[in-house]
């Protein structure tokens, strides 16, 4: 792997021995769920695809358990009309479809409607996940799929490395770092496969993350020396430098929901830690102390920050209130090789990578165990959830 690729992926190592302080580790036994019986009719491929996708998405939501004699019954014929009835409510769908792919999309929409009606929460079944399949030291391609693990789609076929995909807020567009010109640069690609270079920067450009209003892009540039944190304004095409660390490198910026702060990684202390930048004042402070390495931050819609933390030789996924720092931190996974957590739109679930596979993590203290996205062979990594 090239040095630039290592920088782009923020894979910084350290040579210090760390003793982890006491931390609350979540032991997930699973809370009580509303039982839903999915009793839809039809034996053709489309009807089966609808039932399988609906079952999978309801189970992933964290609120329902699919089983017999449920408080809620889903009946009807997919493609002609289905309804969920129980607990004093009814949700209906009359979506028609001609094939299994369209049936799965109808099932996702119906699942989100059931979640909204019975819990008042936003579902995530229709929100795609972008990720990377690493095929060699300098060869990785960009893919998307839905949270139920179906309809995997390959977006790039370049034979060059792809890292760090991030969705544009509210759009079917992904920003990512690519190596088409050998030097890492930021590209944007839509679901039709149309790709554009963000801007022709000198030297390294990586880690692009759009502000919530879509007006600015945080990214890491090295044209003035070592990798530093900048903001690119789309209207003026000008960049503003936020950090000045001559002996360190920055990586992995992400915005707060209100657009006032950016969390990012810096190895100023010779091992990576998460810092918080006030965009208006350019004042920065370190917010992680526990853990030998703290990387891959992602700021969720409810204001919590998720990141990967290395403790005792293992990587965990942790969440916290970034304004309170480590005092509010909580581990939401067991120990392993966890990397790149990314929040779902519901503010409860994360997608993260571990052992060449992708998993959905329920951050509720009594939530479900991590659920593997799919079992296709590959080295799946760098997930990002659209929201």
Please describe what this structure looks like.
The protein has helices at 3-8, 45-60, 100-119, and strands spanning 34-38, 64-66, 72-77, 81-86, 89-93, 129-136, 139-145, 153-154, 162-167, 173-181, 183-190, 195-197, 205-210, 216-221, 228-233, 239-241, 250-255, 261-266, 273-278, 283-286, 293-299, 305-311, 314-320, 330-331, 339-343, 349-354, 357-362, 371-372, 380-385. The chain folds into two domains: 3-26 and 127-385, Neuraminidase (6 Propeller); 34-119, Rossmann fold, CATH 3.40.50. The protein has three helices and 29 strands. The strands form seven sheets. A five-stranded mixed β-sheet has the order 2-1-3-4-5, covered by helices on one side. It has a four-stranded antiparallel β-sheet with strand order 8-7-6-29, with no helix packed on it. The longest helix is centred in the N-terminal third of the chain and has 20 residues, at 100-119. Helices cover 11% and strands 41% of the residues. It is globular. Strand 6 and strand 7 form a beta hairpin. The chain has 387 residues and is mostly beta strands.
